[in-house]
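name: query_chain
kind: protein
chains: 1
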Amino acid sequence: MKFTAEQIAGILEGEVVGNPNAEVYKLAKIEEGTDGSLTFLANPKYGSYIYTTKATITIVNKTFHPEQEIATTLIKVEDAYKSFSKLLEYYNQVKLMKSGIEQPSMISENVTYGQGLYLGSFCYIGKNVIIGKNAKIYPNSFIGDNVVIGDDCVFFAGVRIYSETVIGNNCTVHSGVIIGSDGFGFAPQEDGSYTKVPQIGNVIIEDNVEIGSCTTIDRATLGATVIKKGVKLDNQIQIAHNVEIGENTVIAAQTGIAGSTKIGKNCMIGGQVGFAGHLVIGDNVKIQAQSGIGKNLSDGEVVQGSPAFNYGDFSKSYVHFRNLPKIVSDLEKIKKNN
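structure:
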């Protein structure tokens, strides 16, 4: 899809300096711009590239004034970085603007869906499913019985949504995600074997949640596993049964959260963090990468380590960790001298 400088300026409320009919069909970094590409200049460190870039159109701040001749057409805006981000969002929306039901696909009985549905090939929609407006469900996805999906949701290829799951509005679920699979519940028997504990709860995901590729969220044993509004989950995260994650919390890749742990709102959790079960983590907590959380954390704590402790104490202690062989050697010398 091609756009002219004039069209882009209209979207961004900007001013064209150069050829208003210049056309672009792709995006590029300013130093890698080629004919037909659109780029931007926001960081002065890259200022020299404006004179050599082969990009057809460049978005710049209104305060920018070239010191020598340039070939690229300019679009002047208040904030080049924000405007380019806005354009990326618009581009993404246009790219995802699909509708209709591709074949082969299977829609079971008593399914209802709103206007603007896109259902890709080889999708399966179970019984009594409710899907809101403008949902995009890409090929090879599975939606189980009695699932409820809100408006403006996007499910990329290969998503699996088990029965009874409830998903709010404006949620994005990336490829390979599994929501609503059984929690890890087994009762030990006298002979050393294990009997599976039925997992009859569900998963509730509120509005504006994004879930990264290959993340898994288990259904509750009883009740619900709950992901509250605004939560952002990276790729390859494991969320166990009956976990609750508070509003606007962000979690990086490969984190694992054991059953029934409750995490507060506005938390920031680094990659490869491990949580024990049945914990309570307060609001606004920050947890550094590769930490092991085995106890409750109060509001606003910042922790690191395994087991995790106060971040400032960890940083000071780390200096000594690195010098431990020398410290031991010095102690041995003192002991000998005494």
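note: The mean pLDDT is 94.
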